[in-house]
Amino acid sequence: MRIGTTRFQKTAFAFGGLAALGALLLVTGGLSGAHLENRDTFCASCHSQPESVYVTRSLAANPIDLASFHTTKQVRCIDCHSGPGVMGRASALALGVRDATRYFTGRFTQPAPLTRAIADAQCTKCHGDVANGQDFQNHFHVFLAQWQARSPNAASCVRCHESHITDGEARIGFLNEARTTQVCQACHSFAGADD
Fold first, then answer.
1. How far is CA 64 from CA 56, 112, 154, 170, in A?
2. Which of 27-36, 140-149, 157-166 has the lowest mean pLDDT?
3. Which of 1, 29, 36, 149 has its CA 20 to 30 A from that of 157?
4. Can you give the residue ranges of every domain in the chain?
């Protein structure tokens, strides 16, 4: 009987070691990425245009758009650009890994295209109670879900609440009154279609 390590055992040990090293690199990279993605300046280092403009705006003394207003409340880019829960955050991190890989291999484009639109679920992570107010001034938010359930062309949060557009008015939450009125008219037109 031979005492010692067989070729199979050596191979299995080598593969096990490589798998452990790969897992360690994946966990370390994931934790590092999760830490870095919390810094808006890190996001803007690869997504240089127009994101660097957005980050610069966020550092200004007075907010000039909805995103820079959110920054005054310690809201970071990743807070809006990730879905709800752990899976939403993991999905955003995976997208960040893909984007970083493209950046470091030279296969990126500027301006960086938005590949995932901001969905209502990303807004309601913080603004989940928006439909609770039953007064006239809030009727759009109250009926939005009904419109969305009945029409694929219904509005979404960002149709009115555009984060990086600078032609909104601070006194009305950085809304652009003319564009918002168009959304109001579209909803009223749709609601009147069933009469």
1. 11, 22, 28, 7
2. 27-36
3. 36
4. 37-104, 120-192
φ, ψ dihedrals at 38, nearest 5° = -80, -10
Tell me how far apart the alpha carbons of residues 162 and 67 are, in angstroms, rounded to a whole number.
8
- What is the phi/psi pair of residue 117, to 5°? -65, 155
d(CA 24, CA 38): 22
Q: With bands split at pLDDT 50, 70 and 90, how would you rate the model's confidence at 195?
A: very low
Read off the pTM: 0.74
